């Protein structure tokens, strides 16, 4: 059910397709589990329909439709490129889109077994994405800046996790030390680059044990690449971080420190969403708890790509 009181059903999807894209209306429609601001429907074997549940998501969908077709041709991994746009109507008062379907299983319900391959794939993807953004690229009101601007969010996530919820390999002082080091790191001084902004296990897919696609670009913005480089800890298995940063090749020490702190904050968010899911709270994601604790353990493990100044 959307916040407009309209139930998003397969029947509604078919009606909208018949009205606006009749050549696609005969394809099978199947609901896709999950999603946050959008309800997803598989359309045939190669397409998907993306329907905003909330009015606040409409502008994010428009942003994807504007910019992802521009970026997709240079990206080395499949992404959900919009191929059609649905306009608001009497049946559904928001824009919606038809996108390419990205084959694979979300990482929050799967795993990476080919770590070196995944490290190279992620590094190649981010090297291609992190080009200088144009002057009219979207900004973000809550992401993209220096970690020091996100301290309230970090503290909220850390305080909200139940005692012992960080896992056996983590404790609050160690996590806060990583965050403090990121806050103390110099700011990004390069040009603003394209940033996915929300790389976590539910927003990438894997096939054959490795990274095979990146999805959900509604957070896309121009900013500090450290926001995406946090994915080295959030997505990749232990031990392949040095390979990732060597393949990426553009991250100085300050950027890695900021990225590590942002990875700590994002790991806390995953743990909190997992905790909420275990408690049956609305919006909770039970599968995200284990993913967040595993990522946090990687964040706290010293190594060549993990500065120990904290």
Which features would summarize this protein structure in a list?
single chain, 310 residues, alpha+beta, Phosphorylase Kinase, domain 1, Aminoglycoside 3'-phosphotransferase, Chain: A, domain 2, five-stranded antiparallel sheet, three-stranded antiparallel sheet, 10 helices, 10 strands, 14% strand, globular, disordered C terminus, Aminoglycoside_PTrfase, AGP_Transferase, transferase activity, Aminoglycoside phosphotransferase family protein, transferase
Description:
It is built from 10 helices and 10 strands. By secondary structure, the protein is α+β, with helices and mostly antiparallel strands. It has a 5-stranded antiparallel β-sheet, sandwiched between helices. It has a 3-stranded antiparallel β-sheet with strand order 6-8-9. The protein has a two-stranded antiparallel sheet with strand order 7-10. The N and C termini lie far apart (46 Å). Residues 306-310 have low confidence and may be disordered. It folds into 2 domains: 10-100, Phosphorylase Kinase, domain 1 (2-Layer Sandwich); 105-299, Aminoglycoside phosphotransferase (APH), C-terminal lobe (Aminoglycoside 3'-phosphotransferase, Chain: A, domain 2), CATH 3.90.1200.10. Helix content is 38%, strand content 14%.
